[in-house]
Design goal:
The protein is α/β, with parallel strands linked by helices and about 240 residues long. The protein has nine helices and ten strands. The chain starts with a strand and ends with a helix. It binds adenosine-5'-diphosphate and magnesium ion.
C-alpha cells in the first residue's frame, strides 16, 4: 500500500502541500479532490518523484520512496499521468505504447526506440485494445483528439505494469459519455488489484467510482471518507454541490 505521512512541499513562501497524510491500498480507487491550487498535482509530483519533498515520508509497500528517482519509483511499480497529457507527438499511437513498454524495462528511451519491433507490438496492441485505442493504432499522436490523447497517456502509464497508478485529472475536458467510459476503465484497473489515486473536478467521475475520497484544500486534508460521507461536509457542499 501507499503510505503518505505528513507530506510537506513548499515553493519558497507558497505552502502547496502542508502536512498531508493518507493511505491507498492495493485494489482501492481513491479520488483526491479540491479546488484549483489546492496542491493535488504537487502531491502527485512528490509521490512520483518529480519534486523533492520539503518534509514528510512516502512509502510504497514498505519501501521509502522519497530518495528514489522517478525511474526507480517506476521500477517499484509507481506510474503517473499528467494533467496535460504528455505523449510523443512525432510517433504513432502504437509506437508511443511500444516505447513506454520498452522504456519501462530498459529505462533508456532512445536506444530502446531503435529496438521497437514485433516483440513489444503484440503486447502494445493488447493495451490499446484495453484502453479503446486499437482503431487509432497507426494514427500520429499529433493528430489525436483530446480524449484519445488522455487515453494514450493512460495506456503508456499501464505499459510499465504499475501497481500504483496516479492519474492527474484523467477525465478533464472529456464529454460526458467519454468521461463515463474512461472512469469505468479506471475502476476496472483497481478491480484488477492496482492501487489507483486520481484527481478530479467533476463529481460524476467521483460518485460511484471512488471507494474513498480525500478532500484537499489549501494544502491540507479537509475531509476524508466515502462520497456520501464527504458530501455532508459544509465546505465540500459549498465547493462542489453549489450550496
Ligand atoms: P492543484 O493541482 O490542486 O490545482 P497544484 O499542486 O498545481 O494545485 O498547485 C498548488 C500550489 O502550488 C499553487 O499555489 C501553485 O501555484 C503552486 N505551485 C505548483 N507548482 C509550482 C512550482 N513548480 N513552482 C511554484 N509554485 C508552484
Ligand atoms: Mg492540478
Amino acid at each position: 500500500m501507499l503510505q503518505v505521512r505528513q507530506l510537506v512541499k513548499h515553493f519558497g513562501g507558497i505552502h502547496a502541500v502542508d502536512g498531508v497524510s493518507f493511505e491507498v491500498a492495493a485494489g482501492e480507487c481513491v479520488a483526491l479532490i479540491g479546488p484549483n491550487g489546492a496542491g493535488k498535482s504537487t502531491c502527485f509530483a512528490c509521490i512520483a518523484g518529480q519534486y523533492p519533498l520539503t518534509g514528510g515520508h512516502i512509502a510504497w509497500n514498505g519501501q521509502a520512496l522519497e530518495k528514489l528517482s522517478p525511474a526507480a519509483r517506476l521500477r517499484h511499480g509507481v506510474a503517473r499521468t499528467f494533467q496535460v497529457a504528455q505523449v510523443f507527438e512525432a510517433l504513432t499511437v502504437l509506437q508511443n505504447v511500444q516505447l513506454a513498454m520498452q522504456a519501462g524495462i530498459a529505462q533508456k528511451a532512445i536506444s530502446a526506440f531503435k529496438r521497437l519491433d514485433g516483440q513489444s507490438r503484440e503486447a502494445a496492441q493488447a493495451l490499446l485494445e484495453e484502453t479503446g485505442l486499437l482503431a487509432l493504432a497507426h494514427d500520429d499522436a499529433l493528430s489525436l483528439p483530446y480524449g484519445a490523447k488522455k487515453r494514450l497517456e493512460l495506456a503508456m502509464a499501464l505499459a510499465a505494469r504499475p501497481r500504483l497508478l496516479l492519474l492527474d485529472e484523467p477525465a478533464a475536458g472529456l464529454a460526458e459519455a467519454e468521461r463515463a467510459s474512461l472512469m469505468r476503465l479506471v475502476k476496472q484497473l483497481a478491480g484488477q488489484g492496482m492501487a489507483v489515486l486520481y484527481t478530479e473536478h467533476n463529481m460524476d467521475a467521483v460518485a460511484g467510482v471512488a471507494d474513498r475520497v480525500l478532500v484537499l484544500i489549501e494544502g491540507r486534508l479537509a475531509a476524508e471518507g466515502s462520497f456520501k460521507e464527504i458530501s455532508r461536509d459544509a465546505e465540500v457542499r459549498r465547493l462542489y454541490l453549489g450550496e
